[in-house]
Structures are given as C-alpha cells and as structure tokens.
Amino acid sequence: MQPQGTPAGSAHPSDGGRRRRRARASVSAAALLLAATGLLAACGTSAPSPGLPGGAVTNVLEGGVTGAPVAPVTPARPDFASRAAVVADAVRRAGVPTAPAVPVLLSGWALDLGFDTDEQKIAWNARKVDLAPGVPTHTTGTMTGPMTSGRATRSVGVIGPREAIDRALRADSDAPGSCDGVPAASCRLVVTRAVRADAPVRTTTGEVRLPVWRLTIDGLSHPISVVAVVDGVLEWHPPGSVQPLPGLPETAPLVHPADRLISVSGSTVEVGIGGGPCDVDLAAHVVELDDMVVVGGTSQPNPQDTACPASYVSRRARLQLARPLGSRPVIDVVSGRPRILGVPAY
C-alpha cells in the first residue's frame, strides 16, 4: 500500500482498486500459466477486437511485449491440432465470442487515479464515493461532446457524473463492501466539484481525446477524471481469463498458451506465447477455422537433469493466416478463452 502522505505526483494512475485486483490476479494467473505450460515439470530437478472488421491495421504493444523474445512459427504438431479441435468444440458449445464492434479502452474508465492516503484508496475500492450537494448527478437533456482520433472528430453522447463514476468504480473494484477496518467516517470520498473537460485515452485504435468529468474530491490533492462518453462508444474488458472453459479437459504436456493478442493486420496476427526461460524448441502454431482461429505453441521435453528457474516468459510470434482474420475470435489453445487486442491474460 502507498504510505500516508505520499505526494499525489508519485502515485501511478493505476494505483486504485484496479491495481490491487490485478496484482492479485497476476499472481494466480502466472501460476496457472506456468502450470499450463508444464514449466515446473519441465525443469527437471529444479523447483491477452480480436481483430477489426475488414482486417484493419492495428498495432498495440504494451506490458513489456516490445523487445520480447520471438518464437518461430511452424505447422501445428499432431498434439496441438488435436487440442485445437477439442477447444473449438468447447468454444462452440459455450458460444463463439464476437469481436469488439467498437474500439476497446485500454486505460480504464478512471484517469489520474492516485491517492494521498490508504483510507482514500480503500474508500474508492469499496465504492464509497458520494456527490456533495450542488454537484450535478445527471445530464439534463441530451448532452454531447467531441471525440477526436487523429484528425477526425465526431460528436458523442455524454453521461452525467454519477453514472460515469459508478461505471469507473465497477471496473476498478471487485464489489462494494468492506472498508478493511477503516472507520466509516474515513471510508468515504466526497466529490465537491465536477467539471466537463476532455482528456486523452488509449484504445485499440490509438489515442483519442474524449469528454471526461474532472472531479475535485475533498481531501485529495489532485483531481480524478472519469470518462464521460455514453456506453457503446468504447468497450472495456477486464484482463482475459486464464481459467479454462468449464468442462474443457486439461491440456497435454508441453502445449503452451497464447497469453495476449498483440496486433492484427489483415491476415497477419501477432500473439504472445507463454512459457519459461528454458523451453526447448518452443514454436508457435495456428489452427485456422471458419469461425475462429486457435493459437498457442508447443515445446520439447527438457533433459531430466536440467535445472531451470521457475519464471514466466512471453515470446512474440507472428502468424500468417490463409485469409484476413476479420471478425473471427483468436482463441487460446490452453484455456479456450478469447484473446482481446491489447488486453493481457491476467
């Protein structure tokens, strides 16, 4: 936790509930990914729109992917092809996911999310945010604002401060509730002013400027902004699940997951392949179907007497499809879950 009295300027924008939740998720996700790749067992004696309609060019590199090791791409091994067929059947039974119809927000609904004290952070996580008397709660009539991407600007609908705050809180915290022992009087944030402004945000189609509500909060040394566009202009996705689809059997040893979708350009798809630092002959594979594309990798067994650190490595792989990806989802061969452009699998 950030100590009390830490200057606001030193707080990272992700220091709210989202960071706490994702930190917990990252630990469990890393363990699941390590287990899925057989890394621990392979170390011998040593202890995530899928695509854009029409194949539009999109390039998103984040989370340490830039400069990551590269995995070669080879034809799918029989064990991979067999697993891909099982996964495809499971995905169809669950319902083939659709590609995002609009750009996906990568930065979250709340911007500049840092706090001066632990109590303020806990109050946000618990969704204890009130509006002071006189602060508008909703828009009156129809309100619009400009959304600019590159040189193109269009008018988009705007929601009121209360609705924008609640949407940000739902994304940044697991559920409303406990103040973790903080007295009720201290476990509360009060918005004393809400001003319309605009701010840049990152999306899967690049940076855009859009309407926000800039919130002055009693006792907080800097304002927090919340995205104010109506639902449907952008999508937001939590980190992709690494938990397998219900009923999906365990993967065969040495089959590796696709941990993120990095970029899509027509029929070229770049993904991250999860594994460890000592994988032998790790290669990426793709099984292309009419309704989805299943991706992942395989490796060869390590010698039994090889000692290897139990750490996680994501390797980039550029896959060439027979036709543009289009609206087909990119599916991880281990979990059966879709990989959303720019959204990591943890």
Task: Explain the layout of strands and helices.
Elements lengths: L16 H21 L1 H4 L15 E2 L18 H17 L9 E2 L4 E2 L6 H8 L3 E3 L12 E6 L2 E6 L3 H12 L16 E15 L2 E12 L6 E4 L7 E2 L18 E2 L1 E8 L2 E8 L4 E9 L4 E8 L12 E8 L9 E3 L14
Verbal overview:
The chain has 346 residues and is an alpha+beta fold. It has two domains: 38-100 and 239-332, no CATH class; 103-236, Lipocalin, CATH 2.40.128. It has helices at residues 17-37, 39-42, 78-94, 118-125, 161-172; strands at 58-59, 104-105, 110-111, 129-131, 144-149, 152-157, 189-203, 206-217, 224-227, 235-236, 255-256, 258-265, 268-275, 280-288, 293-300, 313-320, 330-332. The strands form four sheets. Strands 3, 4, 5, 6, 7, 8 and 9 form a seven-stranded mixed sheet that branches. The chain has a four-stranded antiparallel sheet with strand order 1-12-13-16. The longest helix has 21 residues, at 17-37. The radius of gyration is 22 Å and the shape is elongated. It starts with 16 loop residues before the first helix and ends in a 14-residue tail after the last strand. Residues 1-32 and 34-66 have low confidence and may be disordered.
The description of the largest β-sheet is: 7 strands, mixed
Instruction: Tell me the radius of gyration.
Output: 22 Å
Helix-and-strand structural type: alpha+beta
Shape: elongated
Number of H/I helices: 5
Unreliable spans: 1-32, 34-66
Distance between the termini: 20 Å
Order of helices and strands: HHEHEEHEEEHEEEEEEEEEEE
**What number is the mean pLDDT?**
80
**Total count of strands:** 17
Provide the domain count.
2
Strand content: 25-35%
The residue fraction in helices comes out at: 10-25%
